[in-house]
Each structure stands twice: as structure tokens, then as C-alpha cells.
Write a structure and sequence with these properties.
The protein has 334 residues and is an alpha+beta fold. 29% of the residues lie in helices and 25% in strands.
Length: 334
């Protein structure tokens, strides 16, 4: 009987070894998903930053060509390729990286591809900017046990430069800016709101008279002003200085570094909820910072008093920039 017991023990030992080996392999794969997954996430963030910079570099060249200020020895492709190399996006790099680019034009649903950016491609007459697709292939470590040698990490970015034929609501934020009879200095940073002219208010405007914090946040994140002609009177939107959504929507414009438009008022009537702002124009700014919950520190760099103010439409109108333009919206759109 002893040999039978010995054989049973050997089989049991073999089963235990298989279970242990399987468990170790599973643990290694789980650890690999954490480690290698983190590497993939890092590469995605790095790839997105690279795509953003490349799209902006290409779009700047497109803008310069439209505005009669090109570099005659360069091209859109060269501008993008230079940004790619400077940011480590090369096929032979430590992390293989490849890219493609397309010119983009305008459509009712947003930017649309109108042709590949190649070494010999000129700038199309209707090009607003550039879309760039970046693919990185970071290697793996532990998940290689499952036969996965690398990750494919795809990112893309689109940037445009467009001049407006009217004041577009897609850039008009409900933030009141006090008129200065002495004017403003382009490039200088100003405190945009202080609430001093509307006691109980914080310098926000309500397009409809609603005091719902969600409506205010939406009007900042996704500008939705009605059509109006200046001068025009809008309600104050008080008491929303500590709204998380409002702060997040403001930060979107600060981080995006895009030109935004802000109503200019000359006086306020009343205080608190029934207060009204008398809007007399529109100013172009780049928002630079905000301090919350006190909203008296939304700051931005002044660009200019926007010339297209009557009427301020609910729809948008834009075109490619020309040498005569004094105001051009230039930045990432997605």
C-alpha cells in the first residue's frame, strides 16, 4: 500500500506546484497591468502634449501665411516636423513615435479635414488650422508574459486660427468688465471683476435672469448668449462665487489659453439679485488666473476692444485670417 500513498502524494505535490505557478503568473500579470498600464498612461499624456504643440506649430504657420507673414524657407510640414523632433516624437526614439497631419477647414459641425499636410503641400485657401495624430509605442515589462510586447497609444489635437466677421457667441462669457474712459493697454493684465458696482454680486451676468449656478456654469463652459445690440441691459447673477462647476469652467479657458470675449458695462443699476448691467461693448481677453471663492480675482491679459459689436449674434461667423485683421482667435479646439 505504501507505494500507492507515495504516488498520491507526488500527484498532490504536482497539483500544488501547478496552482502555485499559476497564482504567481496571475500576480505577475496583475502587477504588469498596474506598472505597464501606468507607463501607457504616462505616454498618452506625453503624446497629447506633443500633439498639442505640433498642432499649434502647424496652425501658426497657416495663420502667418494667411496674414502675409510666412517664413519663405519653411512649410506647414516643416513647422510640425520641427515641433515633433523637439518633443521627442521620432520613429527611432527610445519610445517609437510616428505622426500624421491634416489641414482643417470650417463646417457647420466644427473643423473638418481638407487635405493631408505633406512636405510639398501649400496652405489651402480655406485652411483654418491643423489636426495632428500622434502614435507612441512604449514597450512593456511584465505583461510581456502574455505576449504583449508594446502598447499602441494614440492621441490627436486640432488647432485653428480664425478671424471673426461678427462677435461669436461661442467666445462671449457672462463676466462683466467695467468700462474705463481712459482706455486699456494691450498686453496688460487686469482684474476683470470686483463686484463693487453691484453690492451683493460678483461680477457675473445672467443672459436670461436665472440665478441657477448650473446655468451660469454652462454659459461659461458652453457660451450661449442671446443675440443683442449694444447698448443693452442684462441682469446680475449674484451668489455663485463658490460653485465648483463655475470654477472648473473658468479654468478650462485659463488652461486653454484661448481668446475670449467679455461684455463691457458703463454702470450698474440696483444691487444683489435685481441689479442690472448696462452693456456698451465687448472686450477681447486671454484669462490668466482666478482666485476662489472670492471672485474679485478673475484676471486676464487685455487684447483689444472688439470692433464687431452691433449686433452681437447668437450665431457665429468666422473666416480665415487676412493681413488686415487685428483680432484672430488662435488656439486648440480639441
Amino acid at each position: 500500500m505504501a507505494p500507492k500513498r507515495s504516488a498520491r502524494r507526488e500527484r498532490e505535490r504536482g497539483q500544488v506546484l501547478i496552482i502555485v505557478a499559476g497564482g504567481i503568473t496571475t500576480l505577475l500579470l496583475l502587477a504588469g497591468l498596474v506598472i505597464d498600464g501606468g507607463i501607457a498612461i504616462f505616454n498618452r499624456r506625453d503624446g497629447q502634449n506633443t500633439a498639442d504643440i505640433m498642432a499649434l506649430a502647424g496652425t501658426k504657420f497657416v495663420k502667418d501665411v494667411h496674414m502675409a507673414d510666412p517664413n519663405p524657407s519653411a512649410s506647414t510640414y516643416a513647422a510640425i516636423a520641427s515641433a515633433a523632433t523637439a518633443n521627442g516624437c521620432t520613429a527611432g526614439g527610445s519610445v517609437p513615435c510616428t505622426w500624421e497631419a491634416w489641414f482643417v477647414g470650417k463646417s457647420a459641425s466644427g473643423p473638418v479635414d481638407i487635405g493631408n499636410v505633406t512636405g510639398g503641400a501649400g496652405v489651402p485657401a480655406n485652411a483654418l488650422g491643423v489636426r495632428v495624430h500622434v502614435e507612441r509605442q512604449p514597450g512593456t515589462f511584465l505583461v510581456g508574459l502574455a505576449g504583449i510586447d508594446s502598447w499602441d497609444v494614440d492621441t490627436q489635437a486640432t488647432a485653428v486660427a480664425e478671424a471673426f466677421t461678427t462677435t461669436p457667441p461661442g467666445l462671449l462669457l457672462p463676466i462683466a468688465f467695467k468700462q474705463n474712459p481712459g482706455g486699456y493697454e494691450p498686453g496688460k493684465t487686469y482684474d476683470i471683476t470686483d463686484g463693487k458696482d453691484a453690492p451683493g454680486g460678483f461680477g457675473y451676468i445672467s443672459w436670461t435672469g436665472s440665478n441657477d449656478p448650473n446655468a451660469l456654469a454652462n454659459s461659461i463652459c458652453n457660451p450661449d448668449n442671446p443675440e443683442f445690440s449694444v447698448p443693452y441691459t442684462f441682469w446680475s447673477d449674484p451668489g455663485k462665487s463658490n460653485s465648483t462647476d463655475v470654477r472648473a469652467c473658468l479654468q478650462k479657458w485659463i488652461d486653454g489659453k484661448r481668446t475670449i470675449l467679455i461684455p463691457i458695462y458703463d454702470y450698474v443699476t440696483g444691487s444683489g439679485n435685481p441689479a442690472t448691467y448696462h452693456v456698451v461693448g465687448v472686450a477681447a481677453f486671454n484669462l490668466t488666473s482666478q482666485a476662489q471663492p472670492a471672485v474679485d480675482n478673475i484676471r486676464g491679459n487685455f487684447i483689444e476692444i472688439y470692433p464687431f459689436t452691433n449686433p452681437v449674434p447668437a450665431g457665429s461667423g468666422s473666416r480665415v485670417p487676412t493681413p488686415d485683421d487685428t483680432s484672430v482667435n488662435f488656439g486648440l479646439v480639441k
